[in-house]
Amino acid sequence: MNVSSQVGEVELPPLSARSVVLSLLLGTHPPELPVKELVRAVEPFGVGGSTLRAALSRMVAAGDLRRTDAVYGLSDRLLARQRRQDEAVEARTRAWEGDWEMVVITATGRGPAERADLRIRLAALRLAELREGVWLRPANLRRALPEDLAQVAQTYTARPGRPARELADQLWPLGTWAATARALHAHVAAAHRPADRFTAFAAVVRHLLADPVLPPALLPADWPGAELRAAYAEFQREITGAIGR
After folding, report:
1. Which parts of 8-92 fold into alpha helices (H)?
2. What are phi and psi of 35, to 5 degrees?
3. Residues near 3 by beta carbon (within 8 Å), at least 6 away in sequence
4. Which residues form the domain of 184?
5. Sign (positive or negative) of CA dihedral 217, 219, 223, 227
6. Is 55:30 a contact under the CB 8 Å cutoff?
7. If pLDDT is split at 50, 70 and 90, which confidence band does 243 have?
8. Residue 11 confidence (pLDDT)
9. What is the pLDDT of residue 153?
10. Within 13 Å and on the Cβ side, how many CA atoms surround 128?
């Protein structure tokens, strides 16, 4: 995703047929639709019936979708992605009392692929790496760390000696995230064609997944996270209503 230096200007690549289908199903609860509904839903985005059916076949073969008769739904792997996306939009938090979650990697002898996968998992949990093998974040999220994390790491509750605001600024590029969020919000407000809005909101979801969801006391003034979430939630209701008609 390219965001220009001038706020409100965002350059977004067009969505492929696969991306359109995934975006629709990821935003649908339960995440399954009959093929006739998919044909109707993707039409405003310039995806024809034959292109859609070819994309569906490839996605089933790749394990992205499961098919039951003429109904397509997300695979188990993508159901986990939908849960992460829902959490990104809902941002379930609790009052922060100053504690931090800390995860220290203890496993050794892992290959590059395993290390990379673990880093992706920890980042998805909205943890940030202070130094190699040490990840942390404020303990303000209403979620538990996965039980299998104990196989490779030790988890702690900590209170760093450094000022919390200073530490948050080091761990996350908050200014960059906020500038991109404002540019995306301006872009979706100016987008009117269904395809343009859909493409823009797909980028919004990706950006929300990278929101650290910090306590308000650690955020810069006028943090745009809640505003961006509200815009996406409204769009999701709009899409769900259109599919149900």
Report:
1. 17-26, 35-42, 49-61, 76-90
2. -60, -35
3. 9, 10, 11, 179, 180, 183, 184
4. 173-244
5. negative
6. no
7. low
8. 65
9. 95
10. 18
Burial class (CB in 10 A: 0-12, 13-18, 19+), 115: middle
Triad 160, 166, 168: Cα angle to 5°: 80
Spatial CB neighbours of 93, under 8 Å, sequence gap ≥ 6: 140, 141, 142, 213, 215
Torsion, Cα of 148, 88, 117, 10 (10° steps): 180
User: CA 165, 167, 168, 174 torsion: positive or negative?
Assistant: positive
Give the DSSP letter of residue 111. -
DSSP per-residue string spanning 132-194: TTEEEEES-BS-PPPGGGGGTEEEEEE--SS-HHHHHHHHS-HHHHHHHHHHHHHHHHH--SH
Q: What is the pTM of this model?
A: 0.80
Which helix (H) or strand (E) segment holds residue 30: the answer is none
pLDDT of residue 114 exceeding 80:
yes
Question: What's the CATH number where 110 sits?
Answer: 3.30.70.2650
> What's the structural domain count of the chain?
3
| The residue type at 211 | D
Mean pLDDT of 37-50: 87
Judged by average pLDDT, the poorest of 59-73, 148-162, 186-200, 205-219 is 186-200
The residue among 99 and 203 whose pLDDT is bigger is 99
Which domain CATH number covers 34? 1.10.10.10
